[in-house]
Amino acid sequence: MVFNVQVMRAIAATLVVWVHTQELIVTDVLPHWLRSFGYGGVDLFFVISGFIMVRTTQNKNIRPIQFYRKRILRVAPLYAFFTILIVILSATMPDVLNSTQIEVSQIAKSLVFFPFEKTPDSLYPIYYLGWTLNYEMFFYSIFAVALLLPKRARLMAITAVIVSLAGIGNSIGGLSDYGVAAFFYTRPILMDFVLGVLAASYFHDSARTARNPMRWWLCLAAGVSWLAFGGEVIGFGDVPVSPPTDTFLRFGIASGLIVAGVVGLEQSGTRIGSPLMQRAGDASYSIYLSHYFFIAAVIAVANRLELNDAARALLAPATMAAAVAVGFATYHLLERPFAGDLGIYQRLARLFVAPPPMQPRAITEEAVMGTTRKVQRPDALESDSQSKTT
């Protein structure tokens, strides 16, 4: 299941890149569906995150603190780097970033993944792409507490808590009702994680899906169609608060169908995508966090050169490809050396925290089949991001 899910992570990151590349195209020459479906990249990230967290802990006796520490060391360093970079750029080039003076409290809240009202009805952190990480870390908190429960009760507890929060959110119409945190942590977008959790629970028994790949092709096709064209039927919701978080019906269900489809296909013996897309999935977190800096620079140059609409449209595909390449470079130069399994922060943490007891190595499908291909470790699935999503 590693390959197809990694490919989906690459696609999710590319969707987010597409959303921001559109800012290069000034005139509204693209059809509505082509402009809007990229916003589903965030929901796809969240569904994948729920799936990965369950699959990478199903057969482990992992402690909540151990789990959360690992997630912090995986997510926080790269995000802190880009947040501090934004602070520096805001101080040195405020006109370029169109930024107001950043308060110390805003920096602190951003770095600890706590939502706040940066401007009226706007709940973005200092580096605004980090709003998705606020949801990721909240989900990790729920997941970590659930690890205290017996394995059979964990998924039910996670599902019950998130569904309850989303239900409560129906009675919270704005920030003035109960405050920022109450509004932010009760949005329908949280349900995306539940779909990933349920998918991981269902596919835990591979015998269910080993046959009849056609139904998973149909599931994938339905999800892609819904993601692309569902906007003609379902909107984003009418809550006047940014970012848009009432996207469960519009993008979340579609993302759930897509993840179920690709996982079912792989368990049925069918892979989608290419090895390059799998590697892009490995780098998806870096692509997500780094791409906007490059795209913003391209837009600034295009504006300075006063490029016309045709030139901007032609420049868009190259900008997307280059932004992904920058993400690859970020992954190899920053994320892996600092936040990977053998990164600096992981090594420092191991100096002060006793390693967990050795776990017996799981028997992989490749080992059973007698293949010699190197098997990617389950940890390679974890990076989040997405948890990007826009």
TrEMBL record:
A GO MF term: acyltransferase activity, transferring groups other than amino-acyl groups
This protein's GO CC annotations: membrane
InterPro entries tied to this protein: Acyl_transf_3_dom, Acyltransferase_3
Keywords, comma-separated and alphabetical: Membrane, Transferase, Transmembrane, Transmembrane helix
Source domain of life: Bacteria
Entry keyword annotation includes Transferase: yes
Transmembrane segments: 37-54, 75-93, 126-148, 155-176, 182-204, 216-236, 248-265, 285-302, 314-334
Acyltransferase domain span: 5-331
Annotated region described as Disordered, given as residue ranges: 364-390
GO annotation (BP), single: polysaccharide biosynthetic process
Keyword Transmembrane helix: yes
The protein, known as: Putative acetyltransferase
Species name: Mesorhizobium delmotii
